[in-house]
Every structure is written in C-alpha cells, then in structure tokens.
Amino acid sequence: MGKKELKVAFLLALRSLQRGSRSSVILTILIIGMCFTNMIFLPGLFNGIGQSITKQVVDYEIGNVLVSPKTGGQYVGDVGATLDLINGMPGVQRATPHFTKGATLKYRQRILGASVRAISPNDEKLISPLYTKMIAGSYLGQDDTGEVIIGKPVAGDASIRQEDEFQSSLGGVRVGDSISIDYGNGYVKDYRVKGIFFTGWSQADSAVYTTSTDMALADPRSLDNADYITVKAKSGYSETFIKNELIQYGVSEKVQTTSDLLAKSMGRALQSFAIINMVSLIVSIIITTVVLFIVITIKTINSRRQIGILKAIGVDKEVIMHNYGFQVIILGVLGIILGIIVTLGLAAYMAIHPVVTPEWSATLYITPMDLLINSVILFCAAVVAGYVPAYQVSREDIQTAMRA
Amino acid sequence: MITIGDLQKIYRMGDVEVRALDGVTLDIAKGEFLGIMGASGSGKTTLLHMLGLLDIPTSGSIVIDGTDVSQLNDYEKTMFRLYKFGYVFQDYALVPDLTVMENVSLPAMLRKDRTEEQYHDASIDILTKIGMLDRQDHLPRELSGGQQQRVSIARAIVNKPDILFADEPCANLDTENSRMVLDLFRDINEEMQQTIVMVSHEDWHKDYFHRIISLQDGKVISDGTTGTKH
User: Fold this and answer.
1) Nearest CA in chain A to B106
2) How far does Cα A321 stand from its chain's mean position?
C-alpha cells in the first residue's frame, strides 16, 4: 500500500463524508461523542467524590498525618512533649491534639446524642478550614470557656417538626442560645452557642466543638492526653516524608498518612467504584463499536455496486477498505473531540455547581491522562468497528458487487 | 492484441446449467472498433466482462498482449485493469461524491507512473476534448445523462488505455446523446488508434463499428467487418 493509494483512499473517505448524508455524519459524531462522555463521566465523578472525601477527611478529620495511640493504648499520652517535638520538625505546618467525648445535648425539650470535640482553636486554624465555615455567630477563641460551636444539622431548624426531621437535631438552636451538655460522667454544664458552622462533611457537621480548656473541666484526662494528633504538612512536603520524619524523630505512637487510612477505610468503596467504572467503560465501548459497525456496514451495503465499479476501473481492494477505514477514523476523531469538549464543559460547570449530597460534594475530576487513555481506547474500538465491514466488502468479487 | 480460445462460462442454478458463453473463439486487433451485438441474454455482457477481467471463465483462454490472464492473481488483474483497460458502463457509474474532475482523475491518481501534475493536465485535456471543462467542479447529480456518460468516457480514457470496454453505453440515452457518445468513441478510435470493444443491441450503432460479432445463446453466429474504415 503506497502513498498514492492511501491518498486516494483518504480522498474518497473525505468526499463521502463531505458530500454524503450530512445528518448521518452528524448523528454518528454525536453518538461517539456521547459514548466518550459516558466513558469518562462516571469515573470522573467517582474520582471527584474520592478527591472530595479525601479533602474533607484531611480538612476536618486527620490532616495529612495522624498520630494515634499504639495498639492497645487508649490515648496518645504526653501530648505536650509530643506536640513540641512534632511542631519543631521541618515540613510540619502545625500539629494539634483532638480529644473527643460522647455526650448528650439538651435544648428545651430536645435531647440529642453527639460527639464533643475538644480543640485548640488557634492551632486548629492552621490545620482545618473549619473557622471559615461559620454560617452564624463566630469561631471559638483560644481561651473561650462556657462556649461551643455546633454543626448546622445539630442546631436544626425550628420550622421543621421533630417527627418530620430526616436527622435528629436540637430543633432550631440559634447563636446565643444556651444548651446543656451531659458528658455521662456526672459532669453537666450549660454552654452558650457561639457559632453554627456547616462544612458539608457530615461527621464534622454532626459534632460540637469546644476548647481544650473547657474539656479539661469535663474530663481531666484531656489535659495531657489526646485521642489523636493531626499533623498538617507544609506545602511541598509529602505525607510520606512527614510520616517517616515522625518515626525517625522517635514518635512512638502509631503514625499513618491520609492515604494509609483511606486505603483501609475506603478500600472496598474504591473497589466498587473501579468495578462500576469498568462496566461503564465496557458498555460505552460496546455501544460505540456496534454503532460504528452498523453505520459502516449500512454504508458498504448501500455502496456495493459503487465498490464493484471502483474495483472494475482498477481501484485496489486495499484502497476501498482504507476508504471506509479513513471514514471511521475521521468520524471517531471528530466524535472524540466533541466528547472532550462536552466533558470539559461539564467539568467546568460542575466546578461551579458541584454535586452535593448529605455526605459529600463532588466535582468532575478528570486528568489529561484520563482523556488520553479514553481517547485511545475509543479510537481503537472505532477503527476495529469500521475496518471489519470494510474488509468484508472489499473482498467481495466484482460481479457480485456490481449486481447489488 | 486479444486472442480468445474456446471460452466458456457456465452458470449453475440448482440442477439447471446455463451456458452463457459456449466456445467463443476470436481475435481482436489493435485499433479495432468492435461491436458485440445480439439479443438480450445472448452472452454479450458476459463476454465483455470476461475480456475486461471482471469475471472468470469456466474454461478457455484469454491472452492479451501475450499475457495469459488466467495466470494473474487478484492484485495483478486489478493492476491490469488500471493500466491497460478503460470501462464505460450503461449507467455511467460515476462516484456520486466526487466532482467531474475528481471522477476523471481517479484512475490516473492511482498510477505509479503519473505525477499529480501529469494526471491533472491529462484530465484537463480530456475534459476539454469532451466539452465538459466548464463543468469540472460539478457533481454527477448536477449533470444530464449524456453529460454523465461523457464524463464516464473521459474517466475511461484518461489513462490512455490499450483497450476501452463499453457495455451498452447508450442504453440510457436518447438518440441525440447516443449519437454524441458514439461520435466521441469514433473520434477517440480514429485520433488515438484506441481499441474499443462495445456491446450494443441497437441496429443503427452498426454504422460506427469496424467489425461486428453477433452472439446467440453464448455462441458467435456471425463475425464480419462493416464498411467502416479501420
């Protein structure tokens, strides 16, 4: 197959698309474009959910590295010294302890079980964007006592009757209201609600935050103990680097990166996502292959006499086969370009309007590599779908083709 | 130029055997304008297709310029058709998505011994000769039947083939356009010494042929020259 033959095959393909049925061409490109979008949308959404969950876990739960009690231990002990050690390490932006205690909240006639998280407000600001998520009132001050901030779902809505609530709440607490917290160890105290926040991360939004100073009154063990210490890395430092550094510096508690923890906790979910992605990918490829196969088969069936004539005047069967091959390549490339445009448009739209659920909010997370891999897969499927009928019809003998 | 020996083509339809060609033997000389005539079903088109390597005989031999074409493989036959033959079909058989110029240039584009400039110039020359240069950018559907057939003839001779095969080229044309096409064939034959083998069943076409063979039931029943100069 020489250059001249390929040139003629390409000319025939191009002219057929330019001057043939325009609606058929547009429809085929649309179908390929939509198949491409389908191939990449679902995995992109799952990746977006994964990214969103990871970000929220980092922001509101564990930072980049989590220092938790050794196996068998209840608390991270000697918190003061451990914090001094960690905060002095290169690459660490800040480390801060969390001490969480189950409690019962009371507001008017409402009673609600919730976790009360004790934080060091100033340090927490360097680790979590919680302070930016206040929707009413203000964030905790470092030395606040007798004040808490609560999540929006905990505060509730006074306009919704208790029996109609999807999630139990205190029924419409407002900033400045007083709520009673019973820690279950005999310590009960009334707190003024200083602020109400909403992060979008359900575990944080279902919690009540108080200062370490206040928690020390409720549970003196929190003075030098923590459930865990969250460590935030400075920009440019990897989680693994920080983890290794902590171990090297002699932190004897359990040290895990976000990735370590998510791999365990989300492993099954990620596996499920991967299976759904694979099914979606296979379905899209099958649809594209079948559609292109049908389109090219119909084209070849309708052109059998013309194919016979071309062969009669000395056009080689390879040229005829590549003619249809080029048609499907052109359709495939245009469909993929359309698919990329649609996908990027959706990604841009969802960046502004993410999919928000009670558990997470997600954008479409697509990398250039995702686009490239899916383009190559779809292109290969298109080529196979086009060349099979083209190969068959190009082998038909002239008499049979001309009689068609 | 062409020597045909005891050519047979037998079609089998169940238990029935149809002898489309039954022992045809003849020679065709270079520069000859040969008419193949006969009633419908006499085997005219079958013979033309055998000569043009569009079909395979059941038995017998076809030797063209010393080449026994039965020995050629599929690709060699294709190249034989491209380099040595030109075809004109009853229904013009132009590629509907190509312009007049592209249709005429198509066989020349594939020839390895032609540059782009050469085949372009050749196409211009032919289109000028048949009076279709001003329609070079038109699509076949924008032309009348007579014009399409002229373009089809231009495509057939653009490669200056050794032999031009025409299968009832006037069947779909009125008398005026038929005469125009036949005049064109005669000009090509006289000016370029082009060998032409044409199938026809119109009696008045005889005036254009040098020689006429008549077929009946797949057999040559007459073979004779006409008064036309060769």
Assistant:
1) A8
2) 43
CA A59, distance to chain mean position in Å, is 15
Out of A2, A7, A399, closest to residue B54 by CB: A399
**Domains in chain A: boundaries:** 3-56+268-403, 70-252
Residue A339 confidence (pLDDT) = 95
CA distance readout (Å), A251 to A66, A246, A260: 12, 6, 17
**Better pLDDT: A194 or B112:** A194
Using CB atoms, pick whichever of A5, A16, A398 lies closest to residue B110.
A5
pTM above threshold 0.90: no
Interval A365-394 mean pLDDT:
89
Cβ–Cβ of A314/B156 closer than 8 Å?
no
Instruction: For residue A116, give the H/E element and its range.
Output: strand A110-119
CB atoms within 10 A of CB B88: 26
Chain A residues interacting with chain B (CB cutoff of 8 angstroms): 2, 4-5, 7-8, 11-12, 15-16, 18-20, 305-306, 309-317, 319, 398-399, 402
Q: Which domains does chain B have, with CATH numbers?
A: 30-57+73-225 (3.40.50.300)
Is the pLDDT score of A264 beyond 80? Answer: no
So what's the pLDDT on residue A163? 83
Closest among A252, A297, A303 to A15, alpha carbons compared: A303
Above 0.95 for ipTM, yes or no? no
**Six-digit token string for A119:** 């934080």
Size of interface A-B (CB pairs under 8 A): 75
